[in-house]
Amino acid sequence: MNSRPADGRPGPSLAGLRFAIIGAGRLGSSLALAMRARGAELAAFTCHTLAGCARAQEWLGTRAAADLADAVSTRPNLYVISVPDTAVTEVAENLAAAFRVGRDTATTAPNGPVSASDAATVVIHTSGVTSVEVLVPCAEAGAVVLAFHPLQTFSEPLSGAGRFAGAAIAVTPGAGGPGGSETALRAGFSLARSLDSRPFLLPNNKRVLYHAAACVASNYLVALEACAESMFVRTGMSRDEVLALFLPLVKGTLDNLAEQGTAAALTGPLSRGDTGTVAQHV
């Protein structure tokens, strides 16, 4: 689904939205910078380690919150849980507990364009594989909840902030919270469109398959090129130069994929049925 209007103008502004990043690593910080560029205000962010806080403070230009309760006290409209997959459940439970403790400051009426309810904050997690059901404690505490996963790679935030434009965003709405899944879906699609991304609905029971496909498309490509690099070096090519020498081949292949699709982009001995050459490779 296209995120840009037909005339090509940027998506709607996020002015008036206050948000918190829970886990300001590479993805969380990339998203924070992208949202600020669209007019949103970063109310708070947290990190798990001191080294992580130091990196995030350099990227984001502000100091980290002391803890989760400190972040909640800043009264964000939107909370982004961007932590390792294994930590999402615990963080969601802790955030829900913080909502209950500080209900008067944690459930202010949202006023940004991603908010579809006048009575609840929005809580999202950015894990590709984790079920949206881990956010049930936050929904029970009065939040609109959804999973929001960018189908993109973020190796560092300064360049990552620009990678949301045109990227697909998998949105899985939670059933609980004010307004239920319909409100959550509108919130997710609105946020994605504000980032000039392309949101699509991903059923909760397909998230693991979706994430495995994303890993094949991206992570396995890197592993494959590392294997090719090692083979080229064994031919006598310089390890310092080999990547620059074969990278144009990889980029040309990606261009062919974009222009022709997967099957038509295949070249080389397999596409020609050149079994003799394949046998020599083996």
Tell how many strands the DSSP assignment holds. Answer: 7
The parts where pLDDT drops under 50 for at least 5 residues are 1-7, 104-118
Structural class: alpha/beta
End-to-end separation = 43 Å
For the largest sheet, list the strands in their spatial order: 2-1-3-4-5-6-7
Average pLDDT metric:
89
Our count of helices gives 13
Notes on the protein architecture:
Mean pLDDT is 89; it is low at 1-7 and 104-118. This protein has 13 helices and 7 strands. Strand 6 (168-173), helix 8 and strand 7 (198-201) form a beta-alpha-beta unit. A 7-stranded mixed β-sheet has the order 2-1-3-4-5-6-7, with helices on both faces. The chain is an alpha/beta fold and 282 residues long. It has helices at residues 26-37, 50-60, 68-72, 88-101, 103-106, 136-140, 157-160, 180-194, 207-217, 219-234, 242-260, 269-272, 275-281, and strands at 18-22, 41-46, 78-81, 122-125, 144-150, 168-173, 198-201.
In short:
The protein is of the alpha/beta class and 282 residues long.
